């Protein structure tokens, strides 16, 4: 059993940069959404995030 060492730093798997996917918006995309595990996560800033209602309905219903 080998030791992974420095490559297992907790931040190694964090996506380094993901900005809002809306064209012309240069804000940081702090909110991500992926329809499934096979779909790449897209990112939006809070202002452009289109899934607020979906989040609300998910958290309320289940
Ligand atoms: Zn935006």
Q: How would you summarize what this structure contains?
A:
With 62 residues, the chain is α+β, with helices and mostly antiparallel strands.
What is the topology?
Elements: E1 31-33, E2 42-44, H1 52-61
Antiparallel strand pairs: 1-2
Bound molecules: zinc ion (ZN).
What's the total number of strands?
Answer: 2
- Ligand types: zinc ion
Low-confidence stretches: none
**What structural class is derived from the secondary structure elements?**
alpha+beta
Order of helices and strands: EEH
- Give the number of domains: 1
Write a structural description.
- With about 60 residues, the chain is of the alpha+beta class.
- The protein has one domain (about 15-60).
- The protein has one helix and two strands, in the order ββα.
- It has a two-stranded antiparallel sheet with strand order 1-2.
- The longest helix has 10 residues, at about 50-60.
- Bound molecules: zinc ion.
- Zinc ion binds near residues 20, 25, 47 and 48.
Pick out its properties.
62 residues, 2 strands, 16% helix, globular, binds zinc ion
